[in-house]
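Table 4 source record.
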Amino acid sequence: MGVSTAPILVAHETNAGGPVLANPAPATGLLDFGNQDVNAGPTAARTIYIENTGSAALTVSAPSFTPATTEFQLQSAGFAGTIAVGASATFTITFDPTSAGTKTGIIQFTHNDSGTGTPFVLNVTGNAVLNAPVVEVREGSYIGPMITSGAAAVPGGSRDLGSIDVNAGNTFPLVISIVNSGNLNLTLSMPNKTGVNFADFGLSTSGYVTTLAPGANTQFDVVFDPSLAGVKDCQIEITHNDPGRPSPYIIRFMGTGTDTNAVAITTVTLPGAVTGHSYAASLDAVNGTAPYTWSLYSGTLPAGLSLLPGGSITGTPSGFGSTTNVVIRVTDMTGATNEKSFALQIQVDPNSGKANDNGCAVSATTSATSQWALLGLLGISAMAATRLRRRKA
């Protein structure tokens, strides 16, 4: 009696009694992992059961994701190899997303069952969700412009509380609103003033709450009340439990105190400099209480130059020509300050790069007139050579 022997691969969900999986298997049932929080870790493992119902040994390879993915994981130790007649083997799948959104994957493994296509294909899917509080810091109200943590307060910007005389009291308050746009409770600390001039800023937290339900908001007010003239800086820090934003959250403010008797910079402009040549410039101020101390408030001087505390800018600039903008601060003995913006222009030495003595090098700074003269001489030489050739002919 002639008989035919062949392996037969049958795939099930979970175990031998589970639903049979087609080839390719759609991402439904056990292969659809549903919603999974990004911060919750992997799901429970889901088992794929492979049995050999044929009359010959079934050979299978190790399953793998094609293309590779980090959102789903396979545990297939002992699966690859030979499955005897009537025997079975299993592997498991977990879902551990790293970012929100719908995720998909394709699992494949080869086999020697001629009655079904190879490789055997399983499609998987899952929806990654982010269950977390989300802190939003806004200016003016809960629908105002967003403030990025650590973003600088700039002159004339919304977090510049303006200029006010040191004897005039405080400015109008600026409202800062905090919103929880996430889907879990947001836990906040009380606002904390820090920074060089934090004492010149006032903070009102009346009605402020430290726990915000999803969609809720709270607020605090900031005012500026300087005791001395000059630009003042402050930052307010708030810690929170939003895993996606820096903690503490830093909100920066500035303001300018004015005083007609305070120290004031009188230097109008800075002289230009030339690369490779020594430079010296002096800064002057009046009023206030001497001695004065000079420093950079913002910006960086060109390479090779430095500002001395006594008010001199010295050194030898290097590099290519440019214009550098800096803000220079003078501080008097009482601590009052005055700040002023300067543009320092650096020019390239027109003689740099030229050959010395009788060399023939052409400078990178050769003038356009010289270049055209050189081209003219070359053209005259070419015409003379052409005429000479014609006479000989």
